[in-house]
Write a structure and sequence with these properties.
With about 270 residues, this protein is of the alpha+beta class. It has 5 helices and 13 strands. It has 2 domains: about 5-50 and about 165-230, no CATH class; about 50-160, no CATH class. Helix 2 crosses helix 3. The radius of gyration is 25 Å and the shape is globular.
């Protein structure tokens, strides 16, 4: 687990210059992409920024005709709430027809009961707020840059992981020694690979690349293992989640907000 702090990619770049003695200026765009590739290969939630729409300067997503535009910095979707209620991923293969263009629900005069209409594909169209509850739930589906939902209008509160960036738009990296070393070794390996590819007959470049690859494999394994190891607080949370007489099977409906709360069983 990391400490939750981030540092500039330029700090890592300076360490690369220092440790390798590289005198030629590296392309910052290439270094940024390589760093993001390495972060993606390690892939741990603490490597990214936790974002919630509707909080501070990030507005909620507006649902218009069953669709909402996803944020451009979204890396991993954590959860979706529509007008305060949990939304579930749809299992219907025709869920993307929620705009009604195929079923033409706008011309129907019957089949709509209490604000809900179910088409022949099994899609449930919710047309008013009265039908939204923790039990029924709203369904959604991800389609490229769009979120398709089973409600025509409303507001989406989105919890997701994003790539943290500095004022120059460069990615920030976790302030953790093993994580920084993994990124450094990945960038160095890429640089040495280019040298090897442009001079395949040079045995020295081949040996240098193989050495860099071996170091990268060791450091990325070290970083991955460290991030996956829970600390004392996380272990306590896991204990409270697992040690229960009565499983909390409906925890998802309340956004897992009470999942690790101690169980209180009262016997009379």
């Amino acid at each position: 687990m990391t400490n939750g702090k981030f540092i500039s990619l330029k700090t890592v770049l300076w360490e690369i210059y220092r440790d390798t003695g590289h005198v030629e200026e590296l392309n910052m765009a290439d270094v940024a992409e390589w760093a993001l590739d390495c972060i993606g290969l390690i892939y741990h939630p603490t490597s990214y920024l936790k974002v919630i729409t509707g909080h501070k300067d990030r507005p909620n997503l507006e649902i218009l005709n069953y669709r909402a535009k996803l944020p451009c910095d979204l890396v991993y979707l954590v959860g979706i709430a529509v007008d305060g209620f949990i939304a579930l991923p749809s299992a219907n293969m025709f869920h993307s027809l929620m705009d009604g263009s195929c079923c033409d629900i706008s011309n129907l005069t019957s089949g709509i009961s209490n604000g809900t209409f179910i088409d022949s594909f099994g899609n449930t169209f919710i047309t008013n707020a009265g039908n939204r509850s923790r039990g029924s739930g709203v369904t959604y589906e991800l389609n490229d840059d769009w979120l398709t939902l089973s409600v025509k209008e409303g507001k989406v509160c989105l919890a997701y992981l994003a790539i943290p960036t500095d004022l120059e738009g460069l990615p920030l990296v976790p302030d953790d020694t093993t994580f920084k070393e993994a990124i450094k070794r990945y960038v160095i390996m890429k640089i040495d690979y280019i040298k090897f590819r442009t001079n395949p007959s040079d045995n020295g470049y081949r040996i240098l690349y193989e050495h860099s690859e071996k170091e990268y494999n060791w450091y990325i394994g070290s970083a991955s293992a460290k991030l996956k190891m829970p600390d004392v607080n996380q272990m306590e949370s896991i204990k409270r989640t697992l040690l229960r007489l009565k499983p909390n099977v409906n925890a998802y409906s309340s956004f897992f907000s009470t999942l690790n709360s101690p169980e209180a069983r009262r016997f009379k």
